[in-house]
Specification:
By secondary structure, the protein is an alpha/beta fold. It contains 5 helices and 14 strands. It starts with a strand and ends in a 6-residue tail after the last helix.
Length: about 200
Amino acid sequence: MILKKLVVGPLASNCYIIGSESTKEGMIVDPGAEAGEVLKSIKELGLEIKFIVLTHGHPDHVGALKEVKEATDAEVAIHTDDAESLRQPSSFAFGSSYPPPPDRLLKGGDRIDIGDLHFLVLHTPGHSPGGVCLLGHGVVFSGDTLFNYGIGRYDLPGGSYSQLMNSLHTKLMVLPDDTAVYPGHGPDTTIGTERRANPFLRS
């Protein structure tokens, strides 16, 4: 599996480019800003982008969506409960214009296939109503649900502490300890590390 992480925008959001070694098909997770850097990396990796997957619809994760969509003609996918956020004025706070509408509305249990790579969509509300994580090949892209020694904010519109904790304990903490976690902000971690040492989860 090809995997490249870019830290973009004023809130240091993590954008991930994932690709199949065999087919050179790929996807982008959360193009939050700096479309030029994202597109440059895609070219360097030699990938044909099939999907742009949004873990949620907050501005710092969708700011470069329009430019990246136009350049790649990839399918934009977001959970149905966050799709409306792409039509809000705040959605282009980190970009130059309104983001495009989604091509695919996700729900928990859906699968995203990129060549020989297969990712399961986990619906993990709490930070936002339609927050999702992507699980596959020993890794989980956790968006703003789980961070290294932290969890997502739940005090924003649509957030819920009880939903977030339920998502964390029933969707993520049940995964194997060696599952690599690639969050929406900050450094990578593992499920085992967070299970043992994340102060928000130890109780």
